[in-house]
């Protein structure tokens, strides 16, 4: 960890939820924090790592519900940084991947405050915990990470471009846009592309549904899946099933039962 100035703001990613996926650097920062401003999805076990006298201030955002405005969070960061030497902003996933972490960096950049960014495992990497690799040789040439809800409420304009690529598409905050996402794929003749919706990735209550992208709305409604969740679209979703089927066929060909 680099040498700190007197006042320091730690912008820390806590990962998708499982406390054991916390990085060692994040663990150390939390154990030394004087103030922690934490989000809605932060695991309580992670908060227990903080010192007993640490101030824990909730500034969460419930998806599509009540939330603490970003401007208020920025003001709180400045307020606490003026009073304490080690203030920690704790976010789920990674703070710089749809986490507004850099907005908070900008808030303090001219205040003589040292900023330490500590990356976290993003929720989209939780797809691997469900036997879905984000890339695979010969199947996916890359990953598009898109927001399902821009500031004005619209879906990312990059989705039509992503649909036409040979890459895996991961959509954050897109559960209210399932119908629009499905229609975009159908419009480009790719409605049969495999898709998965993963809720609470890495946690005991994790749930998942897989289907064709054209059936996203129906499948999620039948399984009762809502937000928060990530949407993974691409042939990688059905890769494990395809490999299992191929292995079974090979076994039968060599005389297995």
UniProtKB/TrEMBL annotation:
Pfam families: TP_methylase. Pathway: Porphyrin-containing compound metabolism; siroheme biosynthesis; precorrin-2 from uroporphyrinogen III: step 1/1. Its EC number is 2.1.1.107. Keywords: Methyltransferase, Porphyrin biosynthesis, S-adenosyl-L-methionine, Transferase. Residues 9-216 form the Tetrapyrrole methylase domain. It is an enzyme of class 2 (transferase). GO terms for molecular function: uroporphyrin-III C-methyltransferase activity. GO terms for biological process: methylation; siroheme biosynthetic process. InterPro entries: 4pyrrol_Mease (IPR000878), 4pyrrol_Methylase_sf (IPR035996), 4pyrrole_Mease_sub1 (IPR014777), 4pyrrole_Mease_sub2 (IPR014776), CobA/CysG_C (IPR006366), Siro_Cobalamin_biosynth (IPR050161), Uropor_MeTrfase_CS (IPR003043). This is uroporphyrinogen-III C-methyltransferase. It comes from Sphingobacterium thalpophilum. The lineage of its organism: Bacteria, Pseudomonadati, Bacteroidota, Sphingobacteriia, Sphingobacteriales. The gene is cobA.
């Amino acid at each position: 960890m680099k040498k700190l100035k007197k006042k320091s703001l730690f912008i820390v990613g806590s990962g998708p939820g499982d406390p054991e996926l916390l990085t060692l650097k994040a663990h150390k920062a939390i154990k030394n924090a004087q103030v922690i401003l934490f989000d809605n999805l932060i695991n309580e076990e992670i908060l227990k790592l903080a010192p007993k006298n640490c101030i824990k201030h909730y500034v969460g955002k419930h998806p599509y519900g009540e939330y603490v405005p970003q401007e208020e969070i920025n003001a709180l960061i400045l307020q606490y940084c003026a009073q304490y030497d080690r203030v920690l902003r704790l976010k789920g996933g990674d703070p710089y991947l749809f986490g507004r972490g850099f907005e908070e960096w900008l808030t303090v950049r001219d205040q003589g405050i040292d900023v330490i960014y500590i990356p976290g495992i993003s929720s989209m990497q939780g797809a691997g915990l469900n036997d879905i690799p984000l890339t695979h040789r010969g199947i996916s040439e890359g990953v598009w990470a898109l927001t399902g809800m821009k500031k004005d409420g619209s879906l990312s304009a990059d989705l039509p471009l992503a649909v036409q690529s040979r890459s895996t598409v991961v959509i954050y905050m897109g559960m209210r846009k399932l119908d629009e996402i499905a229609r975009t794929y159908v419009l480009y003749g790719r409605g049969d592309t495999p898709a998965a919706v993963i809720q609470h990735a890495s946690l005991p209550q994790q749930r998942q549904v897989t289907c064709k992208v054209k059936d996203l709305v129906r499948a999620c409604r039948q399984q009762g899946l809502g937000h928060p969740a990530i949407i993974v679209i691409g042939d990688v979703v059905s890769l494990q099933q395809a490999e299992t089927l191929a292995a079974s066929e090979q076994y039968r060909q060599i005389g297995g039962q």
